[in-house]
Amino acid sequence: MIRLKNDVQIAGIRKSCRLLADMYTSVIPQVAAGISTKDVDDLCAEFITRHGGTPAWYREDFPGAACISINDEVIHGIPSRKRKIHDGDLVSLDVGIDLDGYISDSAVTVMVGNVKPEYRRLVEVTRECLAAGIAACKAGNRISDISKAVFAVADAAGYGVVYEYCGHGVGLDVHEDPSIPNVVSRGPNPRIQPGMVLAIEPMINLGCADVELADDGWTVLSADGKVSAHEEHTVAVFRDHTEILTLRG
User: Fold this and answer.
1) Known binding site for a divalent metal cation: residues?
2) Assessment of whether the complete model's pTM goes beyond 0.90
3) What residues have CB less than 8 Å from 84, skipping those under 6 apart?
């Protein structure tokens, strides 16, 4: 069931999203070669709790405040003291905040140090995919319009578009209806309505689109071992516009 949000609820979600954007502004510059993914997780958790929030992934029993995925790890990488960040890595952070019961969700791929040009281009195109998906997210369109827009940008660049995981409704819970695939599917295709709050999140692979689940039961890997990028914003749909709630200043 799709939960349309009223003005009071959107205001609460917006506040949570602004806190998440501020967290990224603080944390991203500290993601550097030599530190562990648990160090990054600690930075995220400390910022969130210091500002009165709770890491939203705790609701899902995820073992960390942030999903931190490096290179061929597509999503849901578990923070670890042993997992070090190196020069040239792509480090994807996916964080949500529960602030007074209102949930935000956003992801960003950080390019650490001397990143290969082909990796940098992948991140740039993934950001273009997100922008295209958001542009298609307007009242009166359908969810498949978002999917088409994301896929068209990535496919034109020759990249694999992850189809097994997708965006989703968000705001009062971590994962809500509707699902928002990055590839047009035969699943439900509801019309986009005012009051929807959606997490749009392209996951784009340098190689094939296929993924596999690691032995830890959480981390999703590209099937061919090539790098992946992940970008995500939470947006709110209004009658005459769509607002990016997690936009960083």
Assistant:
1) 94, 105, 168, 201, 232
2) yes
3) 34, 35, 36, 37
